[in-house]
Amino acid sequence: SGAVGFGDEMATLAGGNVNYTNADGSVETNGAANVKSLLAVNPRELYAVSNDNRLIVSRDHGTTWMDDVTEDRELGVSQALTAISVARAGVNGVYHTVMIADPGKDNGILETWTKTSSGSSADRWICIEDVTYSLTTMEKVTIAAANSGEYYATGKKGEYKYIYVSRDGGLTWKKNSDYDLPAGVSGAQWLKLYATSDGQLVAVCDKG
User: Fold this and answer.
1) What is the Cα–Cα distance from 123 to 59, expressed in whole angstroms?
2) Parallel, antiparallel, or unpaired: how do β-strands 35-41 and 46-50 relate?
3) pLDDT digits (tens, 9 = 90+) for 145-188
């Protein structure tokens, strides 16, 4: 991704630089020659994939980067698809991030990884391995988070059609016919989900 945001903060990747817009509107520009794509951002951390396919994190708006930490299981970060961060309800300064990754297995499912960022050295990505209620393999996956605590995800499997909903922080995902995409977007080449502050789910796409 070339742009990720959280509230009034945003990070964009362009021309070998990360441009970080702070909540007060000021902009920092930092060199990012080794950053291939941005995954997600919150006021504590900025997540990305490096050019040599490592999962990396910056805690100073992209000035410096380090390898991020996962649980014992190895994450094939070249398959990291998308992620989103939200504030942990009722706890100041703690953020919950959900990441979708393609493990490249033959079982036809995507993996969900989660990370709680509290500033502790114990913060790390944990893989949720629930085969029964996982996302199916899709291309161009997009994810959104609502204030209600729900997460929404969709992707292209020949066409854009279903929206999957998680009500437990990304642990399980289920199709929900209440959120099926309209037929007019089925042939789109790209689509992005957004959840508005008033609870609306918005899909933005090309004309298809």
Assistant:
1) 13
2) antiparallel
3) 988 888 999 999 888 888 999 998 888 999 887 877 888 888 88
Residues 110 and 116 sit within 8 Å (Cβ to Cβ): no
Distance CA 125, CA 39 (A): 13
